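DATA SHEET
Item: assembly model
Revision: 1
Owner: S.N.
Input lines:
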Amino acid sequence: MKLISIAAMAFAFSITAPISMADQTPQDVSATAQTMVTAKVNGMVCDFCARAVTKVFGKEDAVDNVHVDLDSGEIHVTLKSGAELSDDRVAELVKKSGYDLVSVERETA
Amino acid sequence: MKRIQHAGLALAIGGAISIPWAEARPVSYPGGWTVMQKNNGDFSSVHAHWSPTAKDSIGLYSERNWQTDWHFTGVQYNRLVKRWNTPNSQANLYLKAGAGQADPFGDDAKTEAAGFIGVGADWETRRWFVSYEGRAYDLGFTKDARQSARIGVAPYLGDYGDLHTWLMLEVQNRPEADTPTVVTPLVRFFYDVQLFEIGYTPETEELLLNWIVRF
């Protein structure tokens, strides 16, 4: 009797687990979607400038990663899953770093 | 002996430094620390500061002047008065002030209240660099002043994290010095948070060694 119960539970799990995972998959994909914020900035000409920006943005809870491109004068900020960083906040952080924001673009992957 | 003194001070203070460039840009980012050291034969100095904002910094400054025999130690405040940011350049205007104590060399040296004020300006692109710095000291027992200017060019452009190299020419004027005006060609290496400079002044046959770290 015990053996039958275990077999029944195993069978039930084997057919429900994929269904439940299938149900969760879209939600997980949505939850792991990351937003990339690209801020065009004036005045960023050296590594100390880039470091200032990296430090200031890196302290934000919403920020996962910061990359500075001196050639294009752009800051590429990857946000944590589900996190938000408003344009106003981006402007504040750029100003706090000592530079001037020109534009902000967003891309969600 | 003088060179030994230079080396001794440089080692004793472990290297913090301020080149005129660094002095001209003495403010970092909120919460950032910077240690700067300069040795150019004329004087050796250390400036360690902390920036509460991107427009202010406060720290300690110590300078030993080999030319006119005095030593200053005190607190220094730096203020970014104005910054001009453009797509390809940055320019800055700074004011600086220090207060502390100074003494002339010697066994009977008497310490006196002392201070200084200074102004710094720079303009920089990724290819070109120009700066100026002037400061005046009141040391109680004497007064002193100096000014310096720089021009530099980067032979290649590196991105963030690369090794950056600059070729520079510095002109320093100090009326009280034995040789009031000297010209120093130098090379700057800039990697990660470290900046190192080495140069040579033919008029005085002195070596210039500067180092900065920001964290």
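QC remark: The domain at 33-108 of chain A is CATH 3.30.70.100 (Alpha-Beta Plaits).
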